[in-house]
């Protein structure tokens, strides 16, 4: 189920236990793209060397996903581009029917078990299915996938901000209406200064992609939403976070994915310095990372 969503209907789920069907779209739009490097289902074999000591497999082990057992996850890595350049490697889902309030979630982690971090970044975007334009014009293009749901490590920060253990990320669909509409989601491995000789990019995996819809009554939905909410929205000066969980890291980024500097004091975020516009806020608790959208007037 999605993060914190109880009594819910599963609209769509994919555990990456099998190879991608033809309804998935894979395209590597990286600068100087390595045509043979695309998103793949893991297919490691047992080994007596340290070669497979990734994704917490241990020497000789076969790595496992967040759920589902050995090799039950998808991955992509630094060899998406040759030399040094911008990586933009896409994994686009089949059509999923969503409406406002649906919770989209997935798990991700870095594959390395090492101590040196080559920063990674992952975006989850979405597009109306009827007008989907697959990115095809290079590393900066997003096609029709202009809606940003989640960005993992938007600032490409080092120090394993992109986690080394399976961590759940989620966001709530807004702006599509109360009647389900067909959309496609795009996982975009997006790393500047990446590649075989770049300072950034290593290897990441994703697992347990899910879209869940609440079956609760109106009062119960309001109670559930109260477990984590932001207010006032829109805001002109401060944004407050309401949650029963202890807040860890909080980050804010604009709709293009650029990390923006804000001052925070516990559950109160000072957004007075931000230009008017739409922003996303990542709120980390012990249960994972939730993404909410807000408007600065």
Short description, anyone?
Helices cover 3% and strands 41% of the residues.
Strand percentage lies at 35-45%
- How far apart the termini lie comes to 34 Å
Task: Count the beta strands.
Answer: 20
> Which descriptor suits the 3D outline?
globular
Helix-and-strand structural type: mainly beta
Structural Rg? 19 Å
Give the rounded overall mean pLDDT. Answer: 88
Descriptive labels:
single chain, disordered N terminus, six-stranded antiparallel β-sheet, 297 residues, mainly beta
What are the SSEs and their pairings?
Layout: E1 8-14, E2 25-28, E3 40-41, E4 74-77, E5 85-92, E6 96-98, E7 103-110, E8 122-128, E9 147-152, E10 167-172, E11 181-194, E12 203-214, H1 218-225, E13 228-231, E14 238-243, E15 250-254, E16 259-260, E17 263-265, E18 268-270, E19 277-285, E20 288-296
Parallel strand pairs: 10-20
Antiparallel strand pairs: 1-12, 2-5, 3-4, 4-12, 5-11, 6-11, 7-10, 7-12, 8-9, 8-11, 13-14, 14-18, 15-16, 15-19, 17-18, 19-20
Give a written overview of the molecule.
The chain is mainly beta. 3% of the residues lie in helices and 41% in strands. It contains one helix and 20 strands. Strands 1, 3, 4, 7, 10, 12, 15, 16, 19 and 20 form a ten-stranded mixed β-sheet that branches. A hairpin with a 4-residue loop joins strand 15 and strand 16.
């Amino acid at each position: 189920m999605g993060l914190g969503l109880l009594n819910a209907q599963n609209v769509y789920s994919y555990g990456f236990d099998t190879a991608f069907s033809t309804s998935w779209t894979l395209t590597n739009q990286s600068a100087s793209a390595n045509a043979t490097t695309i998103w793949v289902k893991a297919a490691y074999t047992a080994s007596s060397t340290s070669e497979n000591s990734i994704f917490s497999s241990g020497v000789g082990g076969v790595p496992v996903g967040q759920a589902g057992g050995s090799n039950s996850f998808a991955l992509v890595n630094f060899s998406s581009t040759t030399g040094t350049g911008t990586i933009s490697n896409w994994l686009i889902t089949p059509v999923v029917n969503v409406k406002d309030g649906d919770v989209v979630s997935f798990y991700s982690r870095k594959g390395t078990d090492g101590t040196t971090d080559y920063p990674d970044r992952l975006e989850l975007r979405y597009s109306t299915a009827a007008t989907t334009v697959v990115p095809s014009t290079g590393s900066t293009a997003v096609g029709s996938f202009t809606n940003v749901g989640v960005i993992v490590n938007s600032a490409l920060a080092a120090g394993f901000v992109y986690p080394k253990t399976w961590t759940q990320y989620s966001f709530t669909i807004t702006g599509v209406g109360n009647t389900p509409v067909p959309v496609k989601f795009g996982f975009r491995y997006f790393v500047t200064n990446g590649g075989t000789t770049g300072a950034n990019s290593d290897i990441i995996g994703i697992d347990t992609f899910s879209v869940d819809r609440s079956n609760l009554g109106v009062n119960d939905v309001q109670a559930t939403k109260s477990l984590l909410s932001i207010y006032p929205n829109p805001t002109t000066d401060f944004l407050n976070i309401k949650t029963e969980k202890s807040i860890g890291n909080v980050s804010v980024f604009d709709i293009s994915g650029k990390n923006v500097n804000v001052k925070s004091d516990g559950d109160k975020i000072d957004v007075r310095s931000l230009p008017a516009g739409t922003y996303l806020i990542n709120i980390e608790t012990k249960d994972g990372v939730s993404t909410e959208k807000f408007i600065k007037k």
